[in-house]
Fold 3-hydroxyacyl-CoA dehydrogenase.
Amino acid sequence: MEAAAIPFSDTVRGEIHGEVLVVTIENPPVNALSADVRAGLVTALDRAAGDASILGLVITGAGKTFIAGADIREFGQPPVEPILPTVIERIEASGKPVVAAINGAALGGGLEVALGCHYRVASPAAQMGLPEVKLGIVPGAGGTQRLPRLIGIPAAIDLIGSGRSVKGQEALSLGLIDEIVDACLEDAALAADRRLAGQDPRRTGHLAVPAADNTAVEKVKARILAKARGQQAPAEAIRLVEAAARPLAEGLADERATFLRLRDGSEAAALRHVFFAERQASKVEDLEGVSPRPVETIGIAGLGLMGSGIAVAALNAGYRVIGLDRDDEAAAKGRERILDLLQKNLSAGRIDQTTFDAQENRLSVTAADGDLAPCDLIIEAVFDDLDVKIDLFRRLDKVIRPDAILATNTSYLNPDEIAAATAYPERVLGLHFFSPAHVMRLLEVVRCARTAPDVLATGLAVAKKLRKLAIVTGVTEGFIGNSIFSAYRREAEFLLEDGALPHEIDAALEDYGFPMGLFAVYDMAGLEIAWARRKRQAATRDPSERYVEIADRLCEAGRLGQKTGRGWYAYPEGKRQVDPVVTDIIAQCRANKGITPRNFRADEIVERLLAAMAEEGQKLLDESVAARESDIDLVMINGYGFPAHKGGPMFAATQTPR
Ligand code: 3HC
């Protein structure tokens, strides 16, 4: 007879199965290791130690998560005993075998608990990793010391330094788990416990660190550090893993001290802000209780670079896709472009042949508007011109069902004007993708003046299925991202006129953590589109507004960026280099306006650019275009290269004295 559940704390309970104590953590939503969970685990260990009839323990999680790690909300509060390292040491020291039954995500402290156990069985879908660096910290409960003992130094650097997680076969091949269990996980864990009972447990912390090949270590280190861009946590994690061969207690003490130092630092505060910002972003006002409309088939009008990327994202998410272009030839070209992208996914091993075939079957293309009739949602990605878009929406309006949704992917046009051209403006919204659309995670979901709540909810549901980070924005020129980007760009050009040079501004930005400085980005993207826009706007520009002509002079001199071999920089043999010709053009423009240039320190440059972004952000909040500061931060981090470890422009502005 099975015994009734034994409560070890509010969130941890036990059940005796024969001679094994099964300890279940139930701390919704994700079984984070709160003080109550930690206390419950210790009580369970005490109970097992003191009961001769118990021969072993199983630790598992209730629901779909094993343990999502330390409770991030407890960071910044005074520590409450027992702390996690102590709990894990108790697990590891147990004389009775402890088996981790990893039923779902085992992340951070959750995986560290599993590493403290003597045997690990996992469901095939369980995600396992130490994502602490993504929170600006290193694992703080033995991860950097036990993982290398189990899987070796290069693999441990890879997992801990990148924060990526693994599952199933990869976890098994690495030696991270002992068994993958397709059938009943608990039965497998109980069986393992019974097998191990009476033997001396295999304690991870007592294993010797496997000898590592130096070249492999250097290679993985270089890869991680190249991506770290000024962040401290990845380098610290590498240092700790590399030193794992010293006595365990020494390594654990160093790890804990490093964890606490980083946890209380600015990088971790910024990344925690980003973590909670992402969860917050999906909570949209007025949508509580509103059900999205069902979407199975997505039409994509315009199969250029952007449209093809959107199609690939939709096919990856399992949607049926009907592509529309202006004639059969363009449609066929679009289909080819989409298949090329899918083929790349196949070659890179991101999808298998069966998935590729299924995706190809779910794709059709046409040049006839009427063929979009079965679509539940149509996303247009045609040339960003109001007349072109209005004409398309008028035509589509006539052929699709009245409950089908129309989305515009415009970057700068007013979607309210596009909606007004249709018979049902309530069904129109904006879905502003970032290029390449199958790669970039950000999606601005534009709530137009008349967008119906369930249409907006559908946009968000589709975004989630596309695995995008959706940020809701109201209508303003450029929405959230391009509005802030314009302010940033404008301020950078003021700085140029005031005395900073492009390479000084870029160096300051790259030092701050941007992957590439603004002027280098311009050169990569090409200067001509913005130039054409400025020429179009020239007639309506307010003459009293400060206007910087330097970019125009560059374009007039044929310096259109990398593709012309020169722009803000020169590119001899493809290498970016300061060009004295540009310095002269800048000096001339300053002189024309009678500006005496001054020197700027890197921190002054960054501060001015941040202030300009934050000021524009505040405007968007005041106008209710953005719902919250953290949404603005996420847009700039995920769409414009703002370093996540600085938390985004709004967060950074609260940290930097201005
Ligand atoms: N602590 C506190 N709250 C957490 C949490 C954590 N570790 N992980 C998730 N949550 C909260 C979220 O904030 C969210 O709360 P909300 O509903 O109030 O907004 C809720 O749990 C659900 O989270 P998601 O929306 O992310 O749920 P998903 O099902 O999409 O994803 C998950 C689940 C994969 C577990 C994901 O939440 C996740 O990746 N969590 C973070 C994992 C992590 O970073 N762990 C390391 C923590 S640091 C650590 O362990 C230090 C140690 O070394 C000492």
